[in-house]
Design brief:
about 150 residues; alpha/beta; 4-stranded parallel beta sheet; 6 helices
Length: about 150
């Protein structure tokens, strides 16, 4: 099983779509793609933020912002989520997410094959790992699939 938050949810979808044998995938606050979040003009700020929070640790990476932007723009979970089926997916998103709009969850859900479930956390923001309702749903749903 795979579970990922935000960009990690994007990675979970893509990895699961390219691998057989998983019993479950859960994404929380995951973008459907980078088109709304990452523009060519904002890539420098994104890289600086990623370095600041430890996602990018190598000071020499990326070697070229333009190449990095093109690579990131090509990450489109919404185009790959349909390939998960028959692996079940739970898409969890907060209706008050100020970073990734809840519409991104609906895009992923509509593109996903069956079995799929969409769970919208009332009052939930972007950091769903701190939201007891979101975590209870995600963990119990995943454990139910692992028991099957």
């Amino acid at each position: 099983a795979l579970m990922g938050f935000s960009g990690g949810g994007m990675v979970s979808i893509i990895c699961a779509a390219r691998r057989d044998g998983l019993k479950a995938v859960v994404t929380l606050a995951s973008p459907a793609d980078h088109s709304r979040l990452l523009t060519r003009e904002s890539i420098g700020a994104f890289i600086a933020h990623a370095r600041g929070i430890g996602i990018i640790r190598d000071p020499e990476y990326p070697a070229c912002e333009e190449d990095y932007y093109r690579e990131m723009a090509g990450v489109r979970p919404v185009q790959e989520v349909g390939g998960l089926s028959p692996t079940p997916i739970l898409i969890v998103h907060g209706d008050m997410d100020d970073l990734v709009p809840v519409e991104e969850a609906h895009r992923l859900y509509h593109a996903a094959g069956e079995p799929k479930e969409l769970y919208i956390v009332k009052g939930g923001g972007h950091k769903l790992r701190h939201d007891p309702d979101a975590m209870d749903k995600a963990i119990s749903w995943m454990l139910d699939r692992l028991r099957d």
